[in-house]
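Exercise 3.2. Students should predict the tertiary structure of the chain below and write it as structure tokens, then compare their answer with the key that follows.

Predict this chain's 3D structure.
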Amino acid sequence: MSKFLCVMDSVMTGSRCRTPFCVKRPSCQDCNIFPFRTSFAQARPYRSRMARRPRAFVEGLYHLASHASDTRHLFLSDRERTTFLERLELLLERFELRLVAYVLMGTHYHLVLFTPDARISSALQQLHGWYSRWHNRRRGRGAHLFRAHPLAREIESDADLVGVCRYLAYNPVEAGLAAHPLAWRWSSASASAGLCQSPVPLDEGPLRAAFGESPDWRRRYRAFLEGAGESG
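Answer key:
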């Protein structure tokens, strides 16, 4: 099974975040961030080369991620994360997009979104443009805040979706920001697991379907995140 090449971005604590970005060759001999077992045969996303961004979005679920330019941080305070989520919620409603999962880090963020067509490009452009202006005014900066090319990959199956959501949940753990995947406040993982309310409306349908529309899908999802490997 192929591994992948990661570009490691600093986070607020000085730890390293294992986020795949701009993959330019099929494998990396040093990186393996998914040392967990799962009964989902395909639940490890990014088993091989990861594309930057599809030329045209079509209807479907996508894993999106965007990083700050250079050594800057997107989020330096809880207020900035809150403001970003508030703007995200507004644009989700405006563009009729459905948010399945998210995590906000220091230098970057991840989303899992459903889009009916290519409108997602305009939504991201407006989100990044508005937040960049707000953030730069707040910090007295004027340079570009976001990198030019966000990651975008279409999610191809239920197992793929579960693997991506687990990957998002473990980002703060890998970066040293949280001791447990359900402990990071700025992630949708605990809300999807039924432990709290999400500050942004979530579309629970795709994850519920990935766990067979089971009435106890939240418990099974929580067990999966905690390493029990209960799935499908």
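Discussion points: The first helix runs from residue 78 to 95. Helices lie at 78-95, 119-139, 158-174, 189-192, 205-210, 217-225.
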